[in-house]
Amino acid sequence: MRKLTYFIACSIDGFIGDLEGDASAMMRFVDEEFFAFLKTEYPETLPTHGRRSLGIDDLPNKRFDTVIQGRSSYDIVLKEGLTSPYAHLREYVASRTLGESPDPNVEIIAEDLVGRVRELKAEDSAFGIYLCGGSALAGELLDEIDELVVKTYPIVQGAGMPMFGADFAVTEFALESVRTFKNGVLVRTYSRKR
Question: pTM here?
């Protein structure tokens, strides 16, 4: 069974962006040390257009071969004129309203999201599934998430989009590792307690 990993950036107080989901305030913490970590440990989480502009598009995938993102996250790149932000992965967008995919590499999941994710998890692959965001999608898939990789940036936002847009549901995870960076960023990895 493949793992579904929610790989997400957040503030100290648990917000993944402002009230509209804009996370640009966190970008300044992607310094040389932290970028080297991402490039080495999670290269497939870097969007294709960024990989190409940095000349690192040939980096092999290490952990994931599939990405799932929500409509709001996907809309951000669509506004930039990009239709396949993770062309180096199999791409899925969960949306009941998008209709037809604007790109042949992107499959829209309009119905039975949990069922489709379970099918993807049951596939035979050495790689896992990257849950890219956002909040509502993570909330809907909370019971399917096997691992959390939380990149916590040293800022407090006070309000914004929470990591999980869901009803109250206590869900326990076990801390597996913590990595600290000189700029104050923490990367914590948790596995679901089943």
Answer: 0.95
